[in-house]
Amino acid sequence: MGRARVVSTSGTADPPGVAEPLARVRRVEDLSGLMGERGRTVVVCFSGSWCGSCSLFEPTFEAVAGELADPERAFALVDTQELPALATAYAIQTVPTVVVLRDGVVVDRINGVVTARELRRRVSAGGTAGAGPTVAQ
């Protein structure tokens, strides 16, 4: 199993790697761009560079992204200090928080660190764990 390649939405890699891309969202508009077609799922990990738990969880998120990303499912990282407006729009109160979106609607939310197995299960379920509010884009 390879490490996910982290790609900024401007198209430059942050660090080089293999496997599927993991977008690092740098602007609020970038997340809308990732959503693309109707029915696409976007799995977003909100974290902070200052957060120890986030540093521990990010490799797990990257690994699961490398396994599960495909044309219908994208993965992204958002630093809440860099994009506080996006964190506010998705009601992020703690980090790390993973938000699963489909058509701009929050269909699942995972607060805190979880195992790769649990993250895989929740992402693969595609939001059957519960629906959330629509967030303006």
UniProtKB/TrEMBL annotation:
GO CC, one annotated term: cytoplasm
All copies of domain Thioredoxin, residue ranges: 8-128
Stored SUPFAM superfamilies: Thioredoxin-like
Entry-linked Pfam families: Thioredoxin
GO molecular function: protein-disulfide reductase activity
Keywords of this entry: Disulfide bond, Electron transport, Redox-active center, Transport
Family indicated by similarity: Belongs to the thioredoxin family.
Keyword Disulfide bond: yes
CDD domains, per database record: TRX_family (cd02947)
UniProt key word 4Fe-4S: no
Protein name per UniProt: Thioredoxin
